[in-house]
Prior knowledge:
Elements: H1 2-7, H2 16-19, H3 42-66, H4 70-88
Amino acid sequence: MAASCVAIGLFDGGRADQKAAKIPVEGPQQRWNRYGCNRPYALVSVMRYVIVITTVTFFLIWDGIYNQGRYLDRTVREVTRIVHYVTSMV
Length: 90
């Protein structure tokens, strides 16, 4: 399991193809992951977005359930105030 994860760049930050000279860069021997991408760091890059989306979703659910949307409401009001302040200066 670990060897295959290193081969697609999960544990080393996507630099497996730079370290191992055995993996060909071009040609019919080129490795493709299950998502149809030949770049091992693409999976790590997509995982960053998943973590951010999950964090924002968790915050929204937490604020809605336990605080009745108090922090989200305050944030929206503050952003609206800042936008009005900036656009009125133009």
